[in-house]
Design a protein that fits this description.
- This protein is an all-alpha fold.
- Helix content is about 75%, strand content about 0%.
- The chain is built from eight helices and no strands.
- It has helices at about 5-25, 35-90, 95-115, 130-135, 145-170, 175-195, 200-225, 235-245.
- Helix 2 (about 35-90) runs antiparallel to helix 3.
Length: about 250
Amino acid sequence: MSALATGSIVFICVFGGALLGMFLRSILPEQHVSAESKDAVKVGIGLIATMAALVLGLLVATAKASYDTKSNELTEMSANTVMLDRMLAHYGPETRTIREVLHRAGARTLEALWPQNGQAPRLEPVGGAEVLYDAIAALSPKNDAQRAIQSQALNLTIDIGKMRWLLFVQSGSSISTPFLIVLVFWLTIIFMSFGLFAPHNVTVGATLLVCALSVSGAIFLILQLDRPFEGLIHPESGVKNSHFRPESGL
């Protein structure tokens, strides 16, 4: 499910809870909304709010860690790709064909991570690393400098392949669905209590609407942070715009 769809569901649940609380207030007997009842509900809701804050903080930390990991891996793979191209160019003109393969592999990786047609990322673990490795290994160095470059190029190719596998393995969501469901349930109960004891007027309704939008927006941004290759939040715009572009000198 997309982050936008999840955020919309969160908004419906949270704001719906507030409306349900308002409805219950109109049908409950007076003793159920007395001052003593309010105090008892406030204690319980305070406990739930504390637990919700802890879970929300956990989700933020998890999403941020996932984002940083994927961003660092992408940056490292990009830097290794650029370095590999420079080393092959320094090796000599006999690597021209290999560099062209590297250019095409970089362009395919960019298209897989950020498809131009708006589709979801479709990064696959199998890429051009194996082809590049075989082509570089087949080179016949003529001196010590070329042998050193060949050895380093092979190591960089292995590193690029590792990073691609890591990005593929970590392409799923790191946000625990049970945690998210429980958090939404708690937020719904909290907003239901708001509606239960709040007076019925336009100001209160507008305030609850804004609060529900803010909470669902926070969940939406957390999910966006957890899915950096789709949506609004992208890791390292410089990588996206230049490092994998064939015209950037790769």
